[in-house]
Amino acid sequence: MKYCLLARDTDKSNEVANYIKANVKLEYDENIPDIVVAIGGDGTILKASHQYPNAVIFGIHTGHLGFYANYSADDLETIVSDINSRNYKIDALDILETTFKDRNGRTYTDFAMNEVTIVCPPRTLRLDVYIDNEYFERFRGTGFAISTPSGSTAYNKSLDGSVVDTSLSVMQLTEIAGINSNAYRTLSSPLILSSERTIRLEASEKGSDVFITVDHISYQIDQFECISVKYKKNALKMAYRNHESFLTRINRTFIISKE
Ligand code: NAP
Fold this sequence. Notes:
Distance between the termini: 44 Å
Number of helices: 5
CATH topology of the largest domain: Tumour Suppressor Smad4
Number of domains: 2
Bound molecules: NADP nicotinamide-adenine-dinucleotide phosphate
Helix content: 10-25%
Strand content: 35-45%
CATH class of the largest domain: Mainly Beta
Order of helices and strands: EHEEHEEHEEEEEHEEEEEEH
Radius of gyration: 20 Å
């Protein structure tokens, strides 16, 4: 069994990385590691998951407590012991799989832990929304975010989307600055859809240049044609010893004041 480290570039994260390196007894391998120790915050864990989607991720938070990190920098003995003894539990995380195309026929595929977005900030984007191949609405505005339950507390929450219980398998389609008037009408509220469905967004006008993002990764797509998004269960592996409940995570992040 092999492992590697991915750390946010801060003094605290580098200090934790040095401790892990000095104490973990597995071979170090950045090419095909079985375990990746991601040190920092949720952003670092997103990066680790995209770089090593098949590895077991041990997330250590070195700043404020995040949503994905299950281990604390204040208790490094626990994580070292769990890795060295191979004695840990696995939380299997759901993701969104996406495929998108430009008008030249070039096809891209990727996945998101938090969300897929399609945006065109400087222009009004015109998109036709299909759900399971059934036409739903014509959208005009800046774009859409499609989020997983674990991503519902990220960008989706800033868009006034709902926070979703992570024990549910659903995806959320949330508008980004949709235009709603007597001329243009969309649902406008966030729409929560079953994990069995497929969302497809098609350019309703030729020549749209857009950005598509999957978590922290962005693609600039000239002459965008369409994007489809599907749900995939149990795709990523997060290690933990003790689980914090979903409600506790929400409460300490958004409700309890630090004072
Ligand atoms: P980033 O700095 O890595 O992340 C931005 C912030 O989102 C950080 O504070 C991060 O926490 C937090 N975060 C990430 N996943 C989260 C989750 N599931 N629940 C709650 N908070 C979460 O930024 P980035 O590299 O550009 O993009 C990564 C993510 O940032 C995207 O997936 C998107 O969700 C989020 N984002 C948010 C907005 C917005 O709210 N307006 C705009 C763009 C992107 P840590 O500090 O623990 O890393």
